[in-house]
Amino acid sequence: MSSVDIPREQWATRVGFIFAAVGSAVGLGNIWRFPFQVGQEGGAGFLLMYLLFIVVIGFPAMLVEFVVGRRTERNPVGALKEIGSGIWQYVGWIFIATGFVILSYYSVVAGWTIRYTILGLQDGYIADAAEAEGQFVTLASGLDAILFHAIFMAAVIAIVAVGIERGIELAVKVMVPAIIIITIGLAIYAATLPGAGEAYSYYLSPEWGVIADNWQSIVPAAAGQAFFTLSLGMGVMITYASYLGEDRNLAEDGAIIIGFDTSIAFITGLIVFPILFTAGVDPADPGAGAIFVSLAAAFGDLTLGWLIGAVFFGTVAIAALSSAISLMEVVVSYIIDERGISRPTAAIGIGGAMFLLGVPSAYDLVLLDLFDLFADQILLVLGGLLLMILVGWSLPDLAVDELQRGIGDLGSLGPAWIWAVRIPVILVLLVALVLGILDYYEFLTGPFAEWVGDQ
User: Fold this and answer.
1) Residue 434 and residue 62: Cα distance in Å, rounded?
2) Among 105, 286, 324, 325, which residue has the fewest nearby CB atoms (within 10 Å)?
3) What distance in Å separates the CA atoms of residue 373 and residue 302, rounded to the nearest whole number?
4) What Å distances lie between residue 389 and 236, 240, 299, 446, CA to CA?
């Protein structure tokens, strides 16, 4: 039961839930961040580790969030109040804070994708990397960035305000198939490029020596990407599962969602690397503006690159929108469940506050990094870690009982799942949190301190 007497919405169809969860997972993390993490970590070795951690870390963790959401039929704050006691009941607030902060700057980055889609259709892309970087710096901050941040946030508010069935479910049933069709089409196009063979070798043929020499960097990066790309640690899967019926097979749904998400990430690599290798661009050039500099410059070198680039950036914008509505729903569901505020009012109020918090990120890239590192490397990991500890060590019987609904007796698979949560999942998240805190400290005492000193 909710804290206030408001009828709780549910997904109209199983396909709607799966598409919504896939849409949440398939966002900027997959189409923007994933290929350049592969490039930064040396290619196929990272891909291999990423796929391993999807199974070892991502699947067990997703099931934890599913069982908590469906068991309580509540938002993350209400869910943790119901199953937790003492300090554990406050863990849900970390998820609310994480979703709020991430969407505030996520919307800014998503605004860039809209701007670059229009740029391709208007003027095309600049082939010179130095000039492309200058163009990105100009477009990524200031009034232009704030305008497209506002446009994107308005679209998110409009969809979430309509509701689960007529808003989110209807939108993802259009967006997710479009993302799948377009990415497959772009991958087929990329296969015809002259640099495709070299790109596939780089992307698909692991060099064991590279893995052995760089495993300290590859392993935590791959584990973190596996966790983050599935929208875990944000409360999204708790919230979406809270709108489910008891007869759903959570393990089967989770496997389908992970399969779609991982496939789209993999296909994105088949698009990006042939384009980069054909244009002679180094795939190991990371950074917040990676696709807006390196890839845009590569599009500028291709025949009909303006069109291919516009389609690509348009696809990224659609993927970003499907993820953004899930992040806003986490916070909106809390306002509806716990405060009794109507959905349209909650969506407009929360969306407006997120827009205001995102304005500093649209003002300067250093401030975007300030929010991004704090949310992605600390808040997100901390919330996920605490939830895994609570469920894995304090509530294993409740978790197994809930997972069995819609499946039947799990037998030895139930304890195996719990031990996967207790050891590898928790261990990886703990290591990721420590590394994240250290990275954030380095950022605060380095680039951010220098920026403050220049003001």
Assistant:
1) 22
2) 286
3) 34
4) 18, 21, 46, 33
| Token pair recorded at residue 5 | 């007497």
Identity of the amino acid at 226: A
| Each residue's pLDDT tens digit, 374-432 | 888 889 889 999 999 999 999 999 999 999 988 888 889 999 999 999 999 999 889 88
pLDDT for residue 290: 67
User: CA-to-CA distance for 452 and 294, rounded, in angstroms?
Assistant: 28
- 41 near 274, Cβ under 8 Å? no
Q: Return left, alpha or beta for 85; rule: phi > 0 is left, psi -120 to 50 is alpha, else beta.
A: beta
Q: Give the range among 23-32, 197-206, 309-318 with minimum mean pLDDT.
A: 23-32
- What does the pLDDT look like over 278-298, one tens digit per residue? 888 777 765 555 678 878 888
Q: Which runs of consecutive H residues, i.e. helices, occur in 84-128? A: 92-122
Looking at residue 175, the DSSP 8-state letter turns out to be H
Specify whether the CB–CB gap between 435 and 218 falls below 8 A: no
Tell me: pLDDT of 220 over 80: no
Contact, 254 vs 61, CB < 8 A? no
Tokens encoding 392: 């894995």
Task: Please state, as a whole number, how many other Cβ atoms lie within 10 Å of the Cβ of residue 438.
Answer: 11
Are 305 and 299 in contact by the 8 Å Cβ rule? The answer is yes
pLDDT of residue 287: 54
Q: Which residue in this structure is represented by tokens 């244009």? A: 279
DSSP letter, residue 242? T
In this structure, are residues 200 and 277 in contact, taking their beta carbons and an 8 Å threshold? no
- Count the Cβ atoms, other than its own, within 10 Å of residue 433: 17
Structure-token match 């301190």, residue found = 449
Between CA 227 and CA 241 the distance in angstroms is 18
| Dist. CA 415–CA 142, nearest whole Å | 53
How many CB atoms neighbour CB 118 within 10 A? 14
User: What's this model's pTM, rounded to 2 decimal places?
Assistant: 0.89
Rounded Cα distance, 61 and 59, in Å: 5
Structure tokens given for 84: 């937790």
Tokens of residue 63, six digits: 């099931």
Is residue 362 within 8 A of residue 144, CB to CB? The reply is no
CA–CA separation, 109 vs 320, rounded Å?
9
